[in-house]
Specification:
With 272 residues, this protein is mainly alpha-helical. Among the domains are: 72 residues, Serine Threonine Protein Phosphatase 5, Tetratricopeptide repeat (Alpha Horseshoe), CATH 1.25.40; 61 residues, Tetratricopeptide repeat domain (Serine Threonine Protein Phosphatase 5, Tetratricopeptide repeat, Alpha Horseshoe). Helix content is 79%, strand content 0%. The protein contains nine helices and no strands. The protein is rod-shaped.
Length: 272
């Protein structure tokens, strides 16, 4: 019997404490709303944070604190508060408001693709909300324009710096190849000219040799020695030749004998 009384007293005490804590959370949220209406956002933020310190999962405190950050254009902080709101919300209406305001933050950040998806989630919670439907259509239109502009920009933009470097490298390689071809062509021409020069020198040397071999002026008038020809003599010709030689020898002998008779030698003349 005593245990049952003790348990009832403790339950009553916990309930009263929770009610007191809930009352404090509610009061902080109420005060924060008052500050927000008068645009005293710093004071409003302080009251909302006091409420969350006592009830960290209170969706109303997260949602109202998100609105305060939105008014202060602190969109990253607002985005986190709206996300936590839809996470802890216990009904579709609260989730719908959280997704709707989260979509508005994404529109401010010009993240149209995520805004479209977020408004879709809001419409799943409340398909009849005309304001959400309008924002969803607007986000879709802005996303399509953004994609179209991106496509046009990709078509009109110059090439990537890395591609330009690669092309420049390719152009340099092509120019080097052309330069090498020109060098090779020049070298071939030089070799060809050298060969032609050597041919000309050879021709000149051959011409000089031919000139040396050709007779000079006056040389053509000199008689070349005749090559001896071997002739067969008939017996009659041999006999006549012997008689002529004999007669010639007789004349020579008669002349010698005549000189001996005269007997005076000639001086001062040289036979050579």
């Amino acid at each position: 019997m005593q245990k049952q009384i003790y348990f009832w007293v403790m339950s009553l005490f916990v309930g009263m404490s929770m009610m007191a804590q809930e009352g404090e959370v509610t009061n902080h949220i109420f005060n924060g709303n008052q500050w927000a209406e008068s645009k005293a956002f710093d004071e409003a933020e302080m009251d909302y944070r006091r409420a969350l310190s006592k009830a960290p999962e209170k969706p109303e405190a997260h949602y109202n604190l998100g609105n305060t950050h939105f008014q202060e254009e602190d969109f990253e902080e607002a985005k986190q508060r709206y996300f936590q709101t839809q996470k802890f919300a216990e009904n579709k209406s609260s989730k719908h408001h959280a997704f709707h305001n989260l979509g508005n933050v994404l529109m401010k950040q010009k993240d149209y693709a995520k805004a479209v998806e977020t408004y879709k989630n809001a419409l799943r919670m409340n398909p009849q909300d005309e304001e959400t439907r309008y924002n969803y259509a607007l986000a879709k239109e802005l996303l399509e324009k953004e994609q179209e502009q991106q496509q046009n920009q990709d078509q009109n933009d110059p090439q990537d710096p890395q591609d330009q470097d690669n092309n420049q490298d390719q152009d340099n390689k092509d120019q080097n190849k052309e330069g090498d071809k020109e060098k090779d062509s020049g070298k071939d021409n030089e070799d060809k000219q050298g060969d032609e020069g050597e041919d000309e020198e050879d021709k000149k040397d051959d011409g000089d040799q031919e000139k040396e071999n050709q007779p000079k002026e006056g040389d053509s008038q000199k008689e070349q020695p005749a090559q001896p020809q071997r002739t067969e003599l008939s017996p009659e010709q041999v006999k006549s030749l012997l008689e002529a030689m004999s007669n010639q020898e007789k004349k020579v002998q008669d002349k010698v004998n005549a000189e001996k008779v005269q007997g005076t030698p000639l001086r001062g003349q040289k036979d050579w």
